[in-house]
Amino acid sequence: MNADRRTAVTAGVLFLVTEVAAIAGAVLYRPLLGGGGAADQRAVLGALCELVLVAAVAGTGVTLYPLVRRWGEGAALGYVCARLLEAVAILLGIVAVLSLTTLRRDAADPGAVDAVGAALVAVHDWTFLLGPNIALGVNTALLAGLMYRSRLVPRPIAVLGLVGGPLICASAVAVMSGLYAQLSVPGSVAALPVFAWELALAGRLLLRGFRPEALRWRIDSPPAGDPEPARQPSTITSGSSRGPASAW
After folding, report:
1. Is pLDDT above 80 for 98?
2. Has residue 59 been placed in a domain?
3. Which residue windows does the record flag with biased composition (Polar residues) (predicted)?
């Protein structure tokens, strides 16, 4: 297996892990709102799933950057930064959830638990909005643009990301404006293109890898912005052969 195929498989696995870990974490977090001890245990498991999610999110950026930067180093670096920003937002949400479980287990005043617990839930909801919505939309659009430009994957897959990234960002703005709730039907529908993009991209990378034609172009052509090769010193061929011309 060559380096490009290993990169494709690694990225495909990481994208699948992000989907599985995100869904598992969301399912396990839901009972936390009920306030029982079992719910707290499930929330801890959900936090562990989201730690795996954080590693996978950061891993996709690190894995793909050395390859996609050849078609736009600024956009590739922006993708890595947006991916890391998404991971940081998820980490803040994990801290809020774990703080809530500690509060419910150790606090003696039920009134304090309700007030502070509501604040921690709000922190988690906002990190979810800013991370796996806005930051995810930005990094999806950046990577899809690079994939569209490079043709590393079929363009219909890239178009899914180009549509889904801005759409989930717009949905997040609508939630921030109070038009509808995060987990409402419009919010779920807006997230479907990004979900389809990541699944399609992961499937393509795992089963087929990157398109060979795009990889051959990458090998045969210098990256944008690279300096031209240095010219060799000229030689004097007229008259007697005297080797390289002197500097003066």
Report:
1. yes
2. yes
3. 232-248
Place of tokens 């922006």: 78
The answer to whether residues 158 and 144 touch, using CB atoms and an 8 Å cutoff, is yes
Residue whose tokens read 């509060």: 103
> Token pair of 112, please?
């304090």
Asked if residue 200 lies in contact with residue 160, where contact means CB atoms within 8 angstroms, the answer is: yes
Angle at 220 between CA 217 and CA 222, to 5 degrees: 95
Residue 159: inside a domain = yes
DSSP string of 37-73? HHHHHHHHHHHHHHHHHHHHHHHHHHHHHHHHGGG-H
Cα distance between residue 112 and residue 41, in whole Å:
21
Note every long-range contact of 171-178, with CB atoms under 8 Å and residues 24 or more positions apart, other chains counting: 171/133, 172/129, 172/130, 172/133, 172/134, 172/137, 175/129, 175/133, 176/129
Calpha distance 182→176 (Å, rounded): 9
Question: Which amino acid is present at 223?
Answer: P
Assess if residue 119 is contained within a domain.
Answer: yes
Among the listed ranges 24-28, 149-153, 229-233, which one has the minimum average pLDDT value? Answer: 229-233
Would you state the pLDDT for residue 233? 40
Q: Which residues contact 75 (CB under 8 A, 6 or more apart)?
A: 68, 142, 145, 146
Residue ranges with strand state E in 128-195: none
Q: By residue range, what is the domain housing residue 166?
A: 3-212
Number of domains forming the structure of the chain = 1
pLDDT at 172 over 60: yes
